[in-house]
């Protein structure tokens, strides 16, 4: 998967790094890439990541990570930094920062963290890389040596699409390990991210010693299993000096015992219940409850209910869920599971009632919002779904999933122009401008829509073309700005 990241990096980096009008790096606060260039680069990489099977599109996990990320970044040197955290289904212990404020988190890291403060410590370190613009600074320092190697690697990746065997040899000859070393952050950047991350962690109300504890545990595992070192250590090399520096910084801080949030415990239980075969997960949680071997009884009961639902044992899942709901205050994650369980049982009326009730108490919980809209669509209540989605878009106008659901509702009604227009807005918010333009072009050729809808779509198409840097002649042929005709618009 890392090859996809490098290929996407190459696609955006070549025109940026070879430009003649880039500013000098100057002092440490300046970046060779503007924030907009970083975001464009990040969007390009994310298009590759979202198409990868490891990308985990779970709204509750994503919301939890982003809530945690914004809690942390609000106490950073740049509290206005845009962030977007996402999860990858990968049992290795890793997290990584990408240009534009994107931060990837492996499920293995979430499960390996023994406390929420440990997870927050790793994320704070990655946020340190983001707010200090380490990626842009690395590009500025390495652009002359990175670009030729990336170009060679790109050739190998393209070859892999047609002949994987030949590509293996090609990739080896590009010295991919050397390229990765060049792209990794420098030791100075790692120390700076440690320092900034520790400050963020302490100001955010977490235990700052948790970062040191986690890194020490990783280093110990590295010594015990050198042939299978944690992925995080390969991307973020730890040294005794780094750990000693962290220990010195926390030595004089007051001791702070920070309890884990119930959301952290429930998300971990959900991952355990969903990442292994359902029957094995059921047995794991039943044994933990029977032997009382758990950190959180509530989270263990939630994991059991979730695993039982996956296994199709709905009556038993209802029993476990009932015990859980009696033991904990009302919780959005628990209520989402209750509604999903009713849907699995085929009780659409009860599911919709649960969604409505839960949304009154937790109106911003994304899984409830998406679940209710999807339940309305499954019940062929497309008009109700569209009204609900329009209301939600007033609060969350930049949410691509809401536009995707809106597109589904319009498609069910046979409104082709509006369907493609909604899908175009989803692509815009995913940073995929070419796909957005294509959707509007398809919609305008669909043959439906009234005068006002057509006028709106045409105006939006002109706007997106201008934003994407392309003009069109009178015949609709697309021309790159400053160049000749590049082909007919689809």
Please describe the topology of this protein.
Elements: H1 2-17, H2 35-50, E1 55-56, H3 59-73, E2 84-88, E3 95-98, E4 102-106, H4 107-112, H5 116-131, H6 134-160, H7 164-173, H8 176-183, H9 187-203, H10 209-224, H11 231-235, H12 240-250, H13 262-274, H14 278-291, H15 297-310, H16 314-327, H17 332-344, H18 348-361, H19 366-378, H20 382-395, H21 400-412, H22 416-429, H23 433-444, H24 451-468, E5 470-472, E6 477-480, E7 485-488
Parallel strand pairs: 2-4
Antiparallel strand pairs: 1-2, 3-4, 5-6, 6-7
Helix pairs in contact: 1-2, 1-6, 3-5, 5-9, 5-10, 6-7, 6-8, 9-12, 10-12, 13-15, 14-15, 15-16, 15-17, 16-17, 17-18, 17-19, 18-19, 19-20, 19-21, 20-21, 21-22, 22-23, 23-24
* Structural class category: mainly alpha
Strands ordered across the widest β-sheet: 1-2-4-3
**β-sheet strand percentage:** 5-15%
Largest sheet: 4 strands, mixed
* Unreliable residue stretches: 1-31, 144-162, 166-183, 224-229, 471-490
In helices, the fraction of residues equals 55-70%
Number of helices: 24
Number of strands: 7
Distance between the amino and carboxyl termini: 31 Å
Can you tell me the overall shape? flat
Mean pLDDT: 82
| Cα-based radius of gyration, to the nearest Å | 25 Å
């Amino acid at each position: 998967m890392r090859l996809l990241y490098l290929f996407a990096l190459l696609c955006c980096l070549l025109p940026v790094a070879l430009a003649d009008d880039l500013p000098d790096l100057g002092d440490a606060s300046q970046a060779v890439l503007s924030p907009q260039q970083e975001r464009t680069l990040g969007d390009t990489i994310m298009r590759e990541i979202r198409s990868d099977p490891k990308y985990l599109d779970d709204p509750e996990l994503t919301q939890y990570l982003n809530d945690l990320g914004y809690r942390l970044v609000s106490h950073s040197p740049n509290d206005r930094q845009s962030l977007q955290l996402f999860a990858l289904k990968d049992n290795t212990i890793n997290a990584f920062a990408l240009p534009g404020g994107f931060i990837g988190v492996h499920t293995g890291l979430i499960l390996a963290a023994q406390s929420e403060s440990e997870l927050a410590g790793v994320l704070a370190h990655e946020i340190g890389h983001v707010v200090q613009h380490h990626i842009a600074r690395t590009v500025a320092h390495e652009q002359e040596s990175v670009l030729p190697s990336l170009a060679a690697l790109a050739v190998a990746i393209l070859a892999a699409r047609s002949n994987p065997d030949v590509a293996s040899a090609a990739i080896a000859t590009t010295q991919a390990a050397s390229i990765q070393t060049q792209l990794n952050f420098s030791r100075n950047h790692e120390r700076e991210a440690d320092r900034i991350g520790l400050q963020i962690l302490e100001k955010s109300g977490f235990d700052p010693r948790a970062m040191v504890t986690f890194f020490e545990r990783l280093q110990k595992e590295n010594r015990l299993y050198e042939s299978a070192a944690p992925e995080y250590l390969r991307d973020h090399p730890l040294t005794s000096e780094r750990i000693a520096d962290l220990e010195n910084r926390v030595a004089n801080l007051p001791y702070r015992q920070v309890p884990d949030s119930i959301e952290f415990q429930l998300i971990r239980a959900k991952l355990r219940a969903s990442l292994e075969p359902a029957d094995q997960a059921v047995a794991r949680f039943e044994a933990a409850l029977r032997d009382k071997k758990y950190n959180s009884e509530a989270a263990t009961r939630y994991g059991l209910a979730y695993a039982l639902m996956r296994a199709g044992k709905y009556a038993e899942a209802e029993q476990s869920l009932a015990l859980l709901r009696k033991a904990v205050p009302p919780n959005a994650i628990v209520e989402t599971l209750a509604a999903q369980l009713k849907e699995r049982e085929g009780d659409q009326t009860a599911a919709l009632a649960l969604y409505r009730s839960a949304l009154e108490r937790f109106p911003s919980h994304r899984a409830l919002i998406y679940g209710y809209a999807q339940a309305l669509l499954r019940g062929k209540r497309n008009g109700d779904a569209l009204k609900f989605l329009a209301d939600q878009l007033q609060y969350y106008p930049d949410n691509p999933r809401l536009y995707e659901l809106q597109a589904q509702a319009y498609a069910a009604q046979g409104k082709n122009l509006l369907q493609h227009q909604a899908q175009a807005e989803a692509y815009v918010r995913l940073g995929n401008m070419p796909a957005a333009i294509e959707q509007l072009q398809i919609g305008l050729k669909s043959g439906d829509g009234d005068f006002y809808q057509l006028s709106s779509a045409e105006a939006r198409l002109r706007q997106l073309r201008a934003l994407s840097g392309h003009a069109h002649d009178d015949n609709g042929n697309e021309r790159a700005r400053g160049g000749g005709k590049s082909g007919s618009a689809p």
